[in-house]
What we know:
Layout (H helix, E strand, L loop, with lengths): L1 E5 L9 H15 L3 E8 L8 H5 L6 E6 L4 H18 L3 E4 L2 H9 L4 E5 L8 H12 L3 E6 L2 H8 L2 H4 L5 E3 L21 E6 L8 H10 L3 E6 L3 H8 L7 E5 L6 H7 L2 E4 L20 H7 L5 E4 L2 H4 L9 E3 L4 H13 L1 H18 L2 H6 L3
Helix pairs in contact: 3-4, 4-5, 8-13
Amino acid sequence: xxxxxxxxxxxxxxxxxxxxxxxxxxxxxxxxxxxxxxxxxxxxxxxxxxxxxxxxxxxxxxxxxxxxxxxxxxxxxxxxxxxxxxxxxxxxxxxxxxxxxxxxxxxxxxxxxxxxxxxxxxxxxxxxxxxxxxxxxxxxxxxxxxxxxxxxxxxxxxxxxxxxxxxxxxxxxxxxxxxxxxxxxxxxxxxxxxxxxxxxxxxxxxxxxxxxxxxxxxxxxxxxxxxxxxxxxxxxxxxxxxxxxxxxxxxxxxxxxxxxxxxxxxxxxxxxxxxxxxxxxxxxxxxxxxxxxxxxxxxxxxxxxxxxxxxxxxxxxxxxxxxxxxxxxxxxxxxxxxxxxxxxxxxxxxxxxxxxxxxxxxxxx
Length: 365
């Protein structure tokens, strides 16, 4: 099948949505499809080779169209999307860009739109284009990345009419070798890790407080901008917390493989890079990537996470803001290797069965 993926993500970038898009393209390719990614090139885009940055196959065609955030920038972008769709003439269009996906339905292409939030939060004009796209017979599927988001959609009077088009497609992670590891910093035997952004709602304060209490455990955080790293460093009392900063996406798995325990202390208000509070509908890629490393996971007991992890089956779930309980569960895993192995093995089985990118991509075809 000839597929065009229409992205609105800034690629390459450090954003999670860019990881989702590029991994979906890789999964479509691995399933035997001819895939072209059409993506905007914003003025602040990183000057990195996309294939190397994300570790994707060079047989994936990538078309980058210059775009700025003005109204005329969008019009210019859509004109070029129009020309590319006419040139490629795909069997199916997949995307997360409302404007270009709507354009594809107008041109008569079968479209699968991949939604990761309540689209009406994008504003009146944005949502008007979304509604026009949903009404079209050429929108063959509307994929949502969590069951929680599906429930939100079904409560919307307009969207409830089109619930027959909705398919839940949880996010995914890539299968990496488990034996590739790195040398981690620190003098202590046990290494507790966190991988991801350091901004509001990610529970970095919980990790720092745990580090200040558990002096005989090393806490290592991978990711984050320099200003965020400096902010959190000033709140560390001892010498057992380490900030490694940004690591290229195709290298991060080696760090996950090297930790003894992985933490995901999401708080009740979880913000995306764009500033949206996503706690009620998120399907965090972080959790799935953790599962792919076959390491024990301790995560917050939030509804979106409970969709993926079950306490003492494939992870440990903790009240998000209870520092003492986080410390207790870390010590529990350190002292109980049988439990640690049990939940690690089950989470890895669940990952292989339900949460690979290829499993997700099949729902779009």
